[in-house]
Protein 1
Amino acid sequence: MVDGLNLFPPSEKNLQMRNRPFAGLLVIVLLLLAAKPALCQEQTAPAQNPPVVPQSQAATPAQTPASTPTTSLPPSTEAQGAAPLRVMVGKSLLINTTERLKRVSVTDPGVADTFVVTPTQILVHGRAPGEVSLLIWDELERSRSFDLRVDVDVSAAAEEEKRVFPEEQIVVTPSRSAIVLSGHVSTEDIAKRAGMIADAYSKNVVNVLTFGPVGAQEVLLEVKFAEVDRSVISQYGINLFTTGAGNTIGSTTTGEFGGVKLGNITDQFPKTGPSTFPTTASVNDALNVFFFRPDIHLGATIKALQTKNLLQILAEPNLIAVNGKEASFLAGGEFPFPMVQP
């Protein structure tokens, strides 16, 4: 050792201690150099294609509940006269618009509620039967007006009518707060029962159902009610006539009135052929009662002398009845009229 310097050569142990930090640093550098290509390879590697799922193993989408009915706004009813928007009581309607909306309103919130769901969608909810105006404003403050009608829900009533009368043609439609029954049924009893079923769903029911056989014939009957004075009943005239039993022609009359030539009555006889019988009976007057029985070849006319004020017409109702059905009318009654008090 000279002047504090160690002249002895370093031992092997000292060399190992001095070289250990350099060896550790060298190991770290080598590891970094080895990892760098791997990192570069991971960044530049192309993306792998996603695995293909076979069609037999593809997952089916989950079923979603029925959505709210959706419609698009027609042109403004003020300009085009478009049909009104309709929604049932207790139901909702989703309306799509082409413009972005700023606000919306209805004239009567008790009939319908409105909500802006998105800038281009309106949700309308029916609360009570009625008709209101739907007003919308876009972002440029331009306004439009539409008619909104809220009707009573008839779906349940229609299903019940179909269940009870599956063979009948009953149409159930809403008209604001009323249920309208239309169509054709076989009998009057079914028409009444259908109205009773509809009464359970609404207080206002309009029953316009028709009934009876389709294409049934109708009969028109003209009825006359007359009043005759009993004291002059002897002035009635009666004419009797007969075509005979094939070879006899005759007639008789009371002589109370004369007739106008009517023409010839042709009577068919089984053996001798047709025979004609001239008459003086007039059936042009509605007050003549005329009848003829071919089986006994006998006819008669009865006439009241209306021209001599012996008879007064009280009522002349006309009845129309379906063939095989009954018809009735109301005659008489009272009506007020002014009188001069003494």
Protein 2
Amino acid sequence: SYLVIYCKSYKTRPNQSFLGRDCIERFGQRTIQRINNDDDVICTTEYSRIVPLENGEIVVSLVNGRPGALNFSYSPVLREFTKATNIRLRFLRTNTLLGHLMGKALRDPTVTRRVSHRGLHRAPPYGFLGLQCDCQHNTCGVSCDQCCPGFNQLPWKPATTYSANECESCNCHRHSFDCYYDPEVEHRRESLDAHGHYRGGGVCLNCQHHTTGVNCERCIPTYYRSSGHSLESPLTCSPCDCRSQFTDGTCEDFTGRCFCKPNYTGDNCDFCASGFINFPDCYRDCSCDITTLIQTASLQTPTNGLVRGLCGCSGIGSLPEVCDASGRCLCKSEFSGPRCEQCRSGFHSYPNCQGAYRLPSSCLSAPPASTDTPAALVRPSHIIKM
């Protein structure tokens, strides 16, 4: 009798295949006449005959007689059951006449094995450590069980009789040669494969040449797509020429036109946008219809100074009651100008605007029509309150 133990790995419980004259006596298990499952552990007395007395051959097959033996490639349970890292033969006693008095000898133990190559290899060559898989179809690993770097457009799958399930390259437009597979990207159809179809979930890693994106298809901020180079060119992304303080540093693809900060416009953001005046300050033009300003402001939470901000009135020199009926800023008594941004005649040291005399605080002044016309007093009832 003897016991065959083969370990699936160093970390898992070993499978056992029993051979003995009396399965019940030795191993507490009945002899199985028929194997019903690919991973059944069996006890057999097939090799327990008295003869031959010597030079007998015992064959232990982990495949033959099992349900998946005739279709091994499509029997994942049987493939997993037959994988092992170590095999141990434990001899208990001989079973020939007075075998318990005889010595035992082991001659030419041979383990016939196959390399677990997932069907993605050629004939394995001899390497420094013995047999090694010669992986094909863009697969890598000791057992060809993973896709090679740069070939993760689709998830790895074992080969079948009808398909090699070849690992496909990611489409990084030659700006990267490494990628990983993301099932969420495939679900959202965001990855472009090498054939120009949104299929698979390959995501490029470490995009070069100032590119970014799932397929390295976009330029990083402060760079733009050059119209003179293809997407695969190392020069496809050119730096934006947006050195003005009124740009946000980014620019439009193919034209290189700078994107401006709010209130500014122009190829170099060197003009005020429509509705704004006095570059480089670019405050809102107060010649606009005050009714429109008030309607715009009413859509927001009413607060003192809201329309004043829209008209570009000075926060220091204007009154909190904002604009008058003509849309002009309402200045404090010691300030003047379209935006109340200067001291009134007779006052000095803007923004403190000190003078020899001051109007009573109950008097409110409006900006004059011209610098030669004295300021006109405005009644409090003329002030539009929010």
Protein 3
Amino acid sequence: MSRKLHINANILKMILMVILISSCMKKGYKISLDKEESSPSVVQYTEEWESLQRHPDPEWFRDAKFGIYTHWGPYS
């Protein structure tokens, strides 16, 4: 009886793993390594104020001030 339950548990684990892995796959996704179709070039930042001033702040950064407050705020 115990061996049968152990085998059933292993089968169940195997089925769940297959479902998990198959759900992570994206159907119809085409992998391409062509330069023309790749994402835009990576923006290079240097440790200078001029480099930071040339690039605008992202939209999400303007609304993220509360996170900085709670991370560096009075409770720390």
